[in-house]
């Protein structure tokens, strides 16, 4: 059973994973589910908030390399996502919400896979 590491941007998302998603996802087949705050929250002027893609990407890659049996996911607010995030610049215009999400998800996945 794979372990799921959900990389989150702040305390709200971290709490949501722990209190709402964890049990459901474990029942769905994951061995364990944990939220990981991206970056070092102690170095921030406030907890939470979107980080650059490079910083988030480095965290995701580090966690995956440390735990080869893990699956990674992200939980971030789209409206605050900086345009330099992979796929974000293309996820604009008259696309539907699901098309925008797919655009970003595909680009993030491809970027991470290239590095692994």
What does this structure look like?
This protein has 116 residues and is α/β, with parallel strands linked by helices. The protein has one domain (3-115). Helix content is 43%, strand content 16%. It contains 3 helices and 3 strands. Strands 2-1-3 form a 3-stranded parallel β-sheet, with helices on both faces. Helix 1 (11-27) links the parallel strand 1 (3-8) and strand 2. It is globular, with a radius of gyration of 14 Å.
List the helices and strands and how they pair.
Elements: E1 3-8, H1 11-27, E2 32-37, H2 53-66, E3 70-75, H3 97-115
Parallel strand pairs: 1-2, 1-3
Radius of gyration: 14 Å
Give the total of domains: 1
Poorly predicted parts:
none
Strand content: 15-25%
Shape: globular
Structural class: alpha/beta
Share of helix among residues? Answer: 40-55%
What composes the largest sheet? 3 strands, parallel
Termini gap: 21 Å
- Write down how many β-strands occur, each being a DSSP E stretch of 2 or more residues: 3
Q: How many helices does DSSP assign?
A: 3
Q: What strand order characterises the main sheet?
A: 2-1-3
Order of helices and strands: EHEHEH
Features:
alpha/beta; globular; three-stranded parallel sheet; 116 residues; 3 helices; 43% helix; single chain; 3 strands
């Amino acid at each position: 059973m794979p372990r799921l590491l959900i990389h989150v941007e702040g305390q709200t998302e971290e709490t949501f994973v722990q209190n709402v998603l964890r049990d459901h996802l474990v029942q769905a087949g994951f061995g364990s589910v944990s939220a990981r705050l991206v970056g070092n929250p102690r170095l921030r002027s406030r907890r939470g908030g979107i980080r650059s893609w490079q910083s988030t990407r480095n965290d995701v890659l580090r966690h995956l390399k440390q735990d080869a049996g893990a699956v990674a996911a992200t939980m971030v607010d789209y409206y605050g996502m900086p345009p330099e995030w992979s796929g974000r610049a293309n996820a604009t215009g008259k696309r539907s919400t699901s098309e925008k999400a797919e655009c970003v998800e595909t680009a993030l996945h491809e970027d991470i896979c290239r590095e692994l």
